[in-house]
Amino acid sequence: MSYSVSAAQLWSRKLAMQAEDMQQHQKSQSNQIASCLAEMNTKQEVVNQTIGQLGRSISEVQQQNSQLVLQSLNQINMSMQQVALGIQDYASRINKLEQTMSDMNLKFEALQKEQNSNTKTLADCTSQMTIITKKLDAELKKRYMTTKQTRTVQNQTMPRSNTTTKKRVLAIDFLADDDY
Fold first, then answer.
1. Does the global pTM surpass 0.70?
2. How far apart are CA 76 and CA 64, in angstroms?
3. Is Nucleus one of the keywords?
4. How far is Cα 90 from Cα 92, in angstroms, rounded to an integer?
5. Which tops the pLDDT comparison, 107 or 162?
6. Could you give the C-alpha distances from 8 to 5, 21, 154, in angstroms and in order?
7. Residue 169 contacts by C-beta under 8 Å, 6 or more apart in sequence?
8. Residue 129: which residues within 8 A CB-CB, separation 6 or more?
9. Mean pLDDT of 12-33
10. Staple partner for 175: which of 127, 147, 154, 180, CB 3.0–4.6 Å?
């Protein structure tokens, strides 16, 4: 029996060694699983942090984009208002300019009518002056002829100078022009 005890001992030792090997194997597998789980947890935390950072970044970018869009829309709105005001100002200036032009056209037409009437008046005055000048010339010739024919002997000895006669003719013309 000692052989069988020894076989039983061997067998129990073998089983104990196998159990110990299995325990160590399970322990190493448990350690590997624990380290794998720890690594997965750390990686999950990194992923969660990255996802959180990405989420925050996305929300920040969305906020910035929405702010930029709002600012751009406000600037466009202000620009449109300025353009509208500019157009209104331009339209009022054009209206004033058109009004000024129509006023100037009316004044120009009035000036043309006045000029036409003045031209007619001037033409009438010129024709009247021509008639008056012809009459005066005729009267002067008559006077000159009568004065020459009725000269006395004393006057004939002292002939008049040309300048005195010219002065008299100019004086008569001057008086005729002023309607004296």
1. no
2. 18
3. yes
4. 5
5. 107
6. 5, 19, 203
7. 140
8. 177
9. 86
10. 180
